[in-house]
Amino acid sequence: MKSRLVLALLVIALAPGATAIPSKDKLTEFCTETSEDLLDSCKAGAESGLSLALAKCENLSRPAARNACRQQAQANNRSALRTCNNQFSARQAICKRVGEQPYDPVIHPANFTNKIDNPFFPLPPGTTFVFEGMTGEGLEHNEVEVTHDTRFILGVTCVVVHDVVTVNGELTEDTLDFFAQDKAGNVWSFGENTKEVADGLVVSLKGTFTAGVGGAKPGIVMGAHPFVGEFHRQEFSLAVAEDVAEVISLNNSVTVPAGSFKSVVRTRETTPLEPDKRESKFFAPGVGNVRTIDETTGDTVDLIEIRKR
């Protein structure tokens, strides 16, 4: 009976029209294959969104409104498909920088310390970094508090950082970030819990991930010894959080309300999820981030104060 069952399964598998799934083990271009799989997923999501939008259109009573709804749905679908293609191109550009190997960092808890003292990304508990700047949406005020709380992720003790953003006095983001430093001095991001807020209500958890959950993996947010051209993944949760960073220069001078700094490291952060978005960040030795510039809009947010308790 068992042999006949196996034979029947083989007949079904080899029947005309049956599609064999190629073994991933034979692939060598894992990064490119990942990009292509994500492109397929994105396009499928766009088509699903179109079907849902059209279904809603069918329930409008007025013919003119119904037709306008259909046209808008089609326009939105074209825009979504363009975004899918742009994201694919951005991911392919990353593959050229990092190579085709799978992204699968090995995390040994014994290789991590219980403090974060990287000169360009120090996170002493009890410290709050305060940033401000005028943006296209108004006055942005950002408080980044290094708490005394910790979180165990993949067996590693992570420092919990509470990041709160207001615009014109209204809360817009409330995030918990989880960082840890390895013994070599690299600072890793093990996840974040992000809440986007509008009119006092949580409207999105976009960007939320935890390393080890749903295929998410940690990434390096600041290397132990930054050098020009250094390029690394800062977080890795496909279609959720895919930030990458490159070190652009090492000897910048920056003056902000919190002080004047030399030997400042400048990085450029991008993400394929928002291909047009680029941020320059400036990290001063012994302090950390002192300035962020949106390279598209020119909006600048500076460090204005460091509070310690």
Largest sheet: 15 strands, antiparallel
CATH class placement of the largest domain: Mainly Beta
> What is the CA-CA span between the terminal residues?
74 Å
CATH topology name of the largest domain:
YmcC-like fold
Round the Cα radius of gyration to an integer and report it: 23 Å
Q: Indicate the proportion of strand residues.
A: 35-45%
Outline the low-pLDDT stretches.
Answer: 1-19
Please give the count of helices.
Answer: 3
Order of helices and strands: HHHEEEEEEEEEEEEEEE
- Provide the structure class: alpha+beta
Tell me the number of strands.
15
Please provide a written account of the structure.
This protein has helices spanning about 1-15, 30-55, 65-100; strands spanning about 125-135, 140-155, 155-165, 170-180, 185-200, 200-205, 210, 215-220, 230-235, 235, 245-255, 260-270, 280-285, 290-295, 300-309. With about 300 residues, it is α+β, with helices and mostly antiparallel strands. The protein folds into two domains: about 25-100; about 110-309, YmcC-like fold (Beta Barrel). The longest helix is centred in the first third of the chain and has 36 residues, at about 65-100. It is globular, with a radius of gyration of 23 Å. The chain starts with a helix and ends with a strand.
